[in-house]
């Protein structure tokens, strides 16, 4: 894959996140985000065979491989988000979600990041319909919200919360009492909607920390008809959160903020980046050609490769530095 070079942005040399200087009272840089593999595993690890079949029918089979992972390296995630570059949207752009985004390696070489990449790494739908459309009329939003509530079989006045979604997913999981028969269509629909609400919030496109604990109403129109969720471009939607994140992180790093706030599906970013570096014989057991790519890695191999990519320097009170492997992203 061809790559192009970019200069340091905002005074930051390519391939490094400058250390934020500690405050006078001794505070150091902290990295905060809502992305949580462990939160997703709380319900994914307990899915019944029937529920897993529903997940596959929705086009989200890659999520079933998350049992291979646990926590991420916060500093590596911050470094990657600082390496993102978002093109300036043309004034005539009617669909801002399609603005190109790229990721630079330690040598400053950039490679485009596309929805197809998200599909190949995470194993999620990359279809035609747009998720998260903006500028929709209030009446349309209300209809979508009503449709989601009906799909979840919520009682009148019952709050649509993440806790309610968790309860719906748990009804037919491995820990639930033995069912009297297969899931009804209504149960499959309720599970599909609840599962995606949880997945979006904890893993797929978690927003900034200010949205913690809230259901993402932005995706309601894509859930209004549970049988059609696979027809939406969930891969592109994941990229949109990175577009929001990139500028914010770069500003925080440039201003030497003591707190870096990340958002988006950080596991995708780590696998996508590591997949494009040449580690020679040190593959750490990662197999090429396996799709989705999330199935080729695990917690151990991810951390081994990240450690190989880490720079030996670590400024006191600052972020770890990465970009040790000085080769263009392939």
Comma- or semicolon-separated keywords:
disordered N terminus; two-stranded parallel ribbon; 11 helices; 6 strands; four-stranded antiparallel beta sheet; about 40% helix; single chain; 2 domains; about 325 residues; alpha+beta
Description:
The protein contains eleven helices and six strands. By secondary structure, the protein is α+β, with helices and mostly antiparallel strands. It folds into two domains: 159 residues, no CATH class; 141 residues, no CATH class. The protein has a four-stranded antiparallel β-sheet. It has a two-stranded parallel ribbon with strand order 2-6. Helix 2 crosses helix 7 and helix 3 packs across helix 10. It is globular and about 60 Å long. The N terminus is likely disordered.
Give a short overview.
This protein is an alpha+beta fold and 330 residues long.
Shape: globular
* Integer-rounded radius of gyration: 20 Å
Low-confidence stretches: 1-27
Mean pLDDT: 86
Total strands = 6
Classification by helices and strands? alpha+beta
The description of the largest β-sheet is: 4 strands, antiparallel
Strand-and-helix sequence, N→C? EEHHHEEEHHHHHHEHH
N-to-C span: 5 Å
Strand content: 5-15%
For the largest beta sheet, what order do the strands appear in spatially?
1-5-4-3
Helix residue percentage: 25-40%
Number of helices: 11
**Count of distinct structural domains:** 2
